[in-house]
Automatic annotation (TrEMBL):
PROSITE patterns, alphabetized: ZINC_FINGER_C2H2_1, ZINC_FINGER_C2H2_2
Lineage per the UniProt record: Eukaryota, Metazoa, Ecdysozoa, Arthropoda, Crustacea
C2H2-type domain location: 78-105, 106-133, 134-161, 162-189, 190-217, 218-245, 246-273, 274-301, 302-329, 330-357, 358-385
SUPFAM superfamilies, A to Z: beta-beta-alpha zinc fingers (SSF57667)
Pfam families: zf-C2H2, zf-H2C2_2
GO biological process, one term: regulation of transcription by RNA polymerase II
InterPro entries listed in its UniProt record: Ikaros_C2H2-ZF, Znf_C2H2_sf, Znf_C2H2_type
Organism: Meganyctiphanes norvegica
Protein name according to UniProt: C2H2-type domain-containing protein
Main location: nucleus
Compartments (UniProt record): Nucleus
SMART domains associated with the record: ZnF_C2H2
GO CC field: nucleus
Length: 408
């Protein structure tokens, strides 16, 4: 069975074909070896190394990259016992039959994943070793797979041949255009098998599935933490290396994450792109907007499993749950006291250091706690508090963490 495919390997380094007899879709990737062809256009036949499906490929005149001669189809003497396709080599037949049997004999030595094809195993293991053998000649960046290098090299030319009909955006790869057009159409073809959520991109559903399975395949080499996404691992590793590649355009601060520098720069520009739909307040971060809007809706989505209390923020729920568990993870380095909240520890440590960061704006007195300076300032403004404090001294309030309010 042959498939006539018209592709341009300058733009796309793989093609997808579908076997009509057994309804199996496979991806034919460009081999790692480049061979320049004398002819501007030709038809060649080569076989997918993983599944052994013969493909008749027509190359456009734009490209001079062809598969090596060892991929040309020879006499087909090996027949599949399941679907009766014939193959030129026994190894092709063996690889093809794994479609039917589901056998994945090649196991990763770093994790428990298995693969049907040795080349796919090799590519996967590079995610563990960090090996990137395919290097760009223009900028020196390296990649784990050749098709990633090919896509990257187009960024140097500035060419984006795939343009969206609904907006002005254009893309380097056709696959990126197809994914983008789903934003306009609302099509979300990838549905979660554990819940009702669906997604535009395949990698997004893979990441989402891990929230159900708990899988964290990306592990830090410097500590025992692991992560659901490679991007999060890279950002975490910067905590060990101290690398902060994203620098503010307005000051000398730098950040480990791109989102952090974008959010920070809004403190300089005053930009607040996230506006509340219930009032006229705006925010620099989407998370801050969502928290604020719960003050209007009274929504408290984070509920305690041990009692009936619920909270607007997950962090508040975590702190509350420590009241039930008795957990106090924050320990003072100067004494043996433990605290349920980090803020309690910070305030406690000021008793050792003598630091009083909160200064009265009416006189020269300073205080350990913000609540205490607010209470003190009422002695200047003559503002009456709603509930008087029964403790006699401010020091008693600071030791207990209570708000001290004097009776007038």
């Amino acid at each position: 069975m042959e498939y006539l495919l018209d592709i341009n390997l300058t733009m796309e380094s793989f093609v997808e074909v579908k076997c009509e007899e057994n309804d199996v879709e496979v991806k034919i990737e460009m081999p790692d070896t480049d061979i320049e062809a004398d002819e501007k256009q030709d038809n060649v036949k080569f076989e997918n190394m993983e599944y052994g499906i013969p493909v008749d490929v027509k190359f456009r005149s734009k490209t001079n990259v062809f598969p090596p001669k060892r991929f040309l189809t020879e006499e087909k003497t090996y027949q599949c016992e399941y679907c009766y396709l014939k193959f030129a080599r026994k190894s092709y037949l063996t690889g093809h039959q794994r479609i039917h049997t589901g056998v994945k004999p090649h196991q990763c030595k770093y994790c428990d994943k298995n693969f049907a094809d040795k080349s796919n195993l090799k590519q996967h293991q590079r995610t563990h070793t960090g090996e990137k053998p395919h290097q760009c000649k223009d900028c020196g960046k390296s990649f784990t797979q050749k098709q990633h290098l090919i896509h990257h090299q187009i960024t140097h030319t500035g060419q984006k041949p795939y343009q969206c009909n609904d907006c002005e955006k254009s893309f380097i790869r056709k696959g990126s255009l197809v994914e983008h057009q789903r934003v306009h159409s609302g099509n979300k073809p990838y549905q979660c098998k554990y819940c009702e959520k669906s997604f535009i991109r395949k990698e997004h559903i893979s990441q989402h599935h891990r929230t159900h399975t708990g899988e964290k395949p990306y592990q830090c080499n410097d500590c025992d933490k692991s992560f659901t996404q490679k991007r999060i691992l890279i950002e975490h590793q910067r905590l060990h290396t101290g690398e902060k590649p994203y620098q503010c355009n307005y000051c000398d601060k730098s950040f480990t994450q791109k989102n952090s520098v974008i959010t920070h720069q809004r403190t300089h520009t005053g930009e607040k792109p996230y506006q509340c739909k219930y009032c006229d307040r705006s925010f620099t971060q989407k998370s801050s907007l969502l928290k604020h809007q719960r003050t209007h809706t009274r929504e408290k989505p984070h509920q305690c499993n041990d009692c009936t209390k619920s909270f607007t923020r997950k962090a508040s729920l975590v702190e509350h749950e420590r009241l039930h568990s008795g957990e106090k993870p924050y320990q003072c380095n100067d004494c043996d006291k433990d605290f349920a909240r980090k803020s309690y520890l910070v305030e406690h440590q000021r008793l050792h250091s003598g630091e009083k960061p909160y200064q009265c704006k009416y006189c020269d007195r300073s205080f350990t706690h913000k609540s205490t300076v607010l209470t003190h300032q009422r002695t200047h403004t003559q503002e009456k508090p709603s509930q008087p404090c029964r403790l006699p001294q401010e020091s008693d309030c600071e030791s207990t963490g209570l708000l001290h309010i004097k009776e007038f």
